[in-house]
Amino acid sequence: MPKPGASYHPQKDSFEKQMATYKAARYVISVDGSPLHMTDLVGDSGQKVACIARSAGDLDEIFARQFKAFKNVDVVTISALVQDWIPENDNRPSRVSFGEVDFGVLYDKLKAGGFITGTERWAPFDDDSRTDLLSELATNQKVGFKEYAK
Sign (positive/negative) of CA torsion 128, 139, 10, 52? Predict the structure, then answer.
């Protein structure tokens, strides 16, 4: 089991270990993706769940409705998206785009929901950090990224 506060990468574990991990978790913070389905299937109503929108599309709200219907869990939804970064050959956000969030808003929502206890509000990306991250993404994904113009 991951230690409290640790990142968990379910794709590195067997299906059985994933089920056990999500069942045992008391707090789950996740982007709006597949791992939340597992939490919803094997979790219980005593879990606290936060869902962070990673791109435009309200998937965080859809997951919240699913948790409410399946487990009567009120999910803390966090839509702090400030920019979608899409592959340079795409024209809209998709499962391969990346969302840039306002870390201050993310911090505020997680703190208000009882998920974190820190006292220093998180700072946004500065231009150099953003440029470095986008360069790293381009190298790893073998495609450049551009700002999505709404």
Answer: positive
Give backbone dihedrals phi and psi of 12, rounded to 5 degrees, phi first: -90, -5
User: What is the DSSP secondary structure assignment for residue 8, as one 8-state letter?
Assistant: -
Do 76 and 142 touch, CB atoms closer than 8 A? Answer: no
Compute the radius of gyration of the chain from its Cα atoms.
16
> Would you state the structure tokens that stand for residue 22, as one six-digit string?
């999500």
**pLDDT tens for residues 92-116?**
988 888 889 999 999 999 999 999 9
**Contact (CB, 8 A) for 43 and 35:** no
pTM of the model: 0.87
C-alpha–C-alpha distance, residues 64 and 76, integer Å: 8
DSSP string computed for 36-83 = HHHHHHH--TT-EEEEE--SSS-HHHHHHHHHHHHH----EEE--EEE
Q: Which of 26, 81, 91 is nearest to 54 (CA)?
A: 81
Express each pLDDT in 26-72 by its tens digit.
Answer: 999 999 888 888 898 999 999 999 999 987 778 889 999 999 999 99
Residue reference for tokens 């790293």: 136
